[in-house]
Amino acid sequence: MAAFLYRMGRLAFRRRWTVALVWAAVLAAVGLAGMTAPEAEEEPFSMPGIESQEAFDLMEERFPGAAADGATARVVFVSPNGEKVTATENKKAVEAAIAELGDGTQVASTVDPYESGAVSEDGSTAYTTVTYKVDASGLTDASRSHLDESLERARDSGLTVEAGGDAMEDTGGPSGAAEAIGISVAAVVLLITFGSLAAAGLPLLTALIGVGISLFAITALAGPLGLTDTTSTLAIMLGLAVGIDYALFIVSRYREERAKGRAPQEAVALATGTAGSAVVFAGLTVVIALAGLSVVGIPMLTEMGLGAAGAVVVGVLIALTLVPALLGFWPNAVLTRKDRKARRAGGTPRETRKVNGGTRWASFVLRRPLPVLLAAVAGLGALALPMTDLQLGMPGDEAKSTETTQRRAYDALAEGFGPGFNGPLTVVVDAEDADDPKAAAETVSERIGGTEGVVSVSPAQFNESGDTAVFSVVPTTAPTDQETKDLVTIIRGDRPGIESEAGVTFEVTGATAMNIDISEKVQSALVPYLLVVVGLAVILLLVVFRSILVPLKAAAGFLLSVLASLGAVVVVFQQGHGADLLGVETTGPIMSLMPIFLVGIVFGLAMDYEVFLVSRMREAYVHGERPAQAVTSGFQHSARVVVAAALIMIAVFSGFIGESDAMIKMIGFGLAAAVLLDAFVVRMAIVPAVLALLGERAWWLPKWLDRILPRVDVEGEALTRPTEPEAEPAEKDLARA
After folding, report:
1. Distance between CA 595 and CA 598 in Å, rounded?
2. What is the pLDDT of residue 349?
3. pLDDT of residue 394
4. Which of 8-22, 24-38, 214-228 has the lowest mean pLDDT?
5. Measured distance CA(576)–CA(697) in Å, rounded
6. What is the 8-class DSSP label of residue 549?
7. How many other CB atoms are there within 10 angstroms of residue 719's CB atom?
8. How many other CB atoms are there within 10 angstroms of residue 294's CB atom?
9. pTM for the predicted model, two decimal places
10. DSSP reduced 3-state for 108
């Protein structure tokens, strides 16, 4: 591997114009394809294999043209100063507002609350549901403006008017603020790390090129493959983060080789052969983790994982080819100002410092490995403890800020009609084989209505064929309460008896049931996902490090950091400690996809740090250093760069904490916390402590296994030269090129 990448780096340096033009052509071609590609049709969210999705599909099949997946806006009217919405003037204002809401070009129907009984018992609150012909993504700007203007005019009557539902959601693309914050902080970190504008700018430039290629490719393939906008979100986030990191490691190793007196071409080749090998295997671990999301069986996660994996592959290829080519154009520009000045004056290269912050920290840990290990594990264990109280769900409007109309509508409905009104269950009765479908549906309705925890059951609505009925069940508790989950379980548990009595079958769906089913599916998929991803990564690291204990230690450290970060998420977003500092107004269940999402992303990034840091230790050990010396050497050369890489990723993820959406806050906080804990506690403390305690045993591998494992030579043993470093006769000519 090292020898092959050495030749690749050398070729890219020598053929820099060709390499640069090829990447420019790729960017132009993919960009043209992305900009001219037809706009992809937004496909509705689906979750194969769960009851609520099957019931939803049955509704779409039996109620054609009913816009089962059409966007909805639930508009709430609250009378002022203790008045009633049934009062003459207030009733006129409500009816006028409903008439105006129904005039929208994409509106399928509106409901009169006075005819449907959608008025609270105390008469203070009424609501109407506006149903659209298209889903939320298909709503035009004109329809959204018409909805907003209608609400504003209704408020002029003196009524309090709020609205919730997916029609109120902002489906616009990301603002770019989080990415801008991440890039800005990354630029500062790179400038401090390298002390050179060119060295700081090169990783940013190549990362942006990689993200551009990936984004345009996803856009071009969105139509044929049915990709959604969410696919590009993770690709941008990870493509930017790993693109900067991978280029950073190549440039850092190049500067190190130049400091040893090597000529630019040889330094680039050696940097690509050694650091490039680490980049390849770090990238493979990320790709395994992301592609492994397909194991979960959620189409959206599969799309996001494969899209982001493609972005990582592009980042690896750019780091191995374009970065060496750009170093060929400006071989001295990435060096520090002191080095450039010394070379212009004909001085000797500056030797690599033997003592720096990395070596001092490594020495500290090596002197007291057991206390450091125990303290780190105890700290992570304490952070992980709240994870035992983890409750999964899909936070809705109740998690939004009270400044939003969706949250105010949610609160008004809960106050006027009860907390369960915001999360009704939908029961779909398949009476195709029943002798009397209406009587059978009535039997199902009565049995479910008599279940403890049910407030009311709406009249059944039949399709045109009369073989399918739908009715709503309002629980006594809020959508995210445990009692509501228990109610769904009870209704489904009583199903055999009810179906036997009625002679029909039924299924439970609706947003609340869907969220419950998603949570259960994600929980059941988490362990298989971990086994697949961690197992494949351990095998990969076994090949890279030719050790049994090092990969197992890496996997154990990752599990500690993920559990600790999930514990931190629970503390803030579920238990509410410190929530005010992040602008989280309402706590509740953790987003169902959060654990598996966090595991997938953080595992790949954690293995990045593991490969970059430990590969330098392995390199030193293979070249003759004792285990303790190898740990110090690894920290001397890699600690500063790993810290910089971690700070960049933390900055990228932390930018999302400032978003108004609670789920985005949660994702940003969770990822930032995980990277912080993994990089600074696991990789910087636990890794050297464990290696110090293991000594020679850390690199033990049975002879039979050593014989059958392929040799990839990540440490660059094949590149060892018995001669002195190559001179630099052509350096000035290259600098002028």
Report:
1. 5
2. 52
3. 72
4. 214-228
5. 45
6. H
7. 16
8. 17
9. 0.78
10. strand
